[in-house]
Design a protein that fits this description.
29% strand; Rossmann fold; 12 strands; alpha/beta; single chain; 3-stranded mixed sheet; 7-stranded mixed sheet
Length: 223
Amino acid sequence: MLEMQHSPCRFEIPQSEFTEVRMRNIKIGVLALQGAFIEHEHMLTDLGAVCTEIRQPSDLTGLDGIVLPGGESTVQGQLLHKSGLFTPLRKLISDGLPTLGTCAGLILMAQEISNPVADRTIQEKAAPTAHLGTLPVTVRRNAYGRQLSSFVTEQPIAGIGNHPMIFIRAPYIERTDVNVEILAKVDGNIVAVKYKNQIGLSFHPELSENSNIHEWFLSQCEK
C-alpha cells in the first residue's frame, strides 16, 4: 500500500529556461494508439520540438522524452500489449526517460488504480488494476464523474504558477509514495505530481492556450 506522505516540491522553473528551450530540436515521442495525441503534438512543435508518433516498438528509438495522452486508458493499455509497445515503453520510463502523462496517461503510469465497482463500465470491470505501473501513486479513475461532469478551473502549480486546468472524465490521485512531489490540488484532491523523470496530470494542458507545462517538460528532456 502506498504511503500518504509526500516530499516537498524542490524545483523552480526560470522563465529564461522556457525561452531557451524554444531553440532546441528535442525529439518527443507521443503515444498515438488512441486519444488526444494530436493536440500535444501541435503544442510541442509550436515550441520547437520534433514530434514523432509512437505506434510500434521501432518508434521508441532516439527519443528525448515521451508523452502519454488522454483518451481511454483501458483501450490504450490493451493496444500497448497488442502493438508490442508495453514492455519496451515501460523499460524506457523506468530507466529514466522524461515522461509526461495526462489524464489517461496518468492512469497508464499509476501503480494502483482505484475505481468503485458500481461506477465501472463492463470494459473497465475487465481491465487490469494497473498498466505500466511506473509511477508510485493510486489513481481514482473517472473521479469527477462522466462526460457531463467535465469542468475548467485555474489553480496554482508548484514552480509554474496559475495554470488553466481542463478536466474531462478526469481521474485524481488518492495516495502517493513518500518520494512523489505533489504539484497541485483542486478541492483538496491531488491533480499533478512529479516523481523522478515522470510528470502525471489529471487534466489536459494541451487543450489550453498556456504552454508553460509543455515548456517545462521540454526543459526536463534536454537535461
